[in-house]
Known about the structure:
The protein is α/β, with parallel strands linked by helices. It contains twelve helices and eight strands. The chain folds into two domains: 5-216 and 307-317, Spore Coat Polysaccharide Biosynthesis Protein SpsA, Chain A (Alpha-Beta Complex), CATH 3.90.550.10; 234-304. Strands 7-5-6-4-1-2-3-8 form an eight-stranded mixed sheet, sandwiched between helices.
Amino acid sequence: MNARNLAIVVPIYNEAENLSALVLRLNRIAASIAGDHGLSVSYVFVDDGSRDGSFALLNHLDYDGRPVRLLQFSRNFGKEAALSAGIEAAPTADAIIMMDADLQHPPELVLDLVRIWQSEDVDSVYAYKEDRRASEGWLKSILTGGFYWIMNRGTRFDITENAGDFRLISRRFADALRQLPESERFMKGLYGWVGFRQRGIPMTPPPRLHGTSSFNALRLVALSFDAMTSFTTTPLRLMALAGLCIAALSGFYGLYIVIERLFFISSGIGISSVLALVAFFGGMQMIFLGLLGEYIGKTVLEAKRRPPYVLAEDRTLGAPASSETTPQEQETP
Ligand code: UDP
Ligand code: MG
């Protein structure tokens, strides 16, 4: 393969404490990638509305002269938007690597991602959490399992379980992502949707260097729900199926009551069982309506065609505007 430039995209939300260590390690990795594979490395940092001075700090770090693009959002738009912005910002890169800023995605693994991409016929290489089941509680395991079950039902593509956003994508893979028009972007789903040959390598994420995760249980549930309603209509089918089962059961029950009345002595039903049933079906209907509402809400949001993010700053450091020319000068095919 004849690739020349690798862009490393990092979404950043209040990571000031981690940035110096991250850049230091990235610089080392970038140097050995240049040595081993002849790839020049550039960085894209997307500040997702941090309030701890991350962006100011990014302007002053030492990138060993590598081209750096610094984007700052006008507010916090979320990691998915930040990743999309990063991919947009590197249209000429032959491959893009996305990784977290908190060093939970060990920069040293970048070498493996690049090596596999260079030596095998794949368009995406991702790292997956090996011992997720062991490290997370049973409740989270069951919920995640259910989530992926629903997500992978009724779609022609698979969304890889346990794969995070630590991933290398080839240029045509990135091109495909850039073409997707939706403003609500669940990247893990989009990676699956895009297709191509993908390969996973195991990793054991170390704990966060500093700070705390932005994704608490509630936010994860919300994200899963958003992902589900934007990728699959299986929940709607399940709803219809549940309705069908309940209708059939009540039909049989009705028949049973009539037969009992006609041929046997009726035992009669108390008012409390009727009340319980009414409340049960009331609840079921509310759940179903709520779910339906979620899907309609998605349509309304997408119909507005709002951009996924708004930029406050867009800076290029290092080799200005030459990120495309320098690597070509170094090596002509
Ligand atoms: N992040 C972001 N926007 C957000 C939340 C997080 O860009 O609204 C970034 C964050 O700075 C980090 C990555 O996304 O680089 C992963 O976030 P975090 O470590 O909080 O999540 P976890 O490791 O728990 O998945
Ligand atoms: Mg993290």
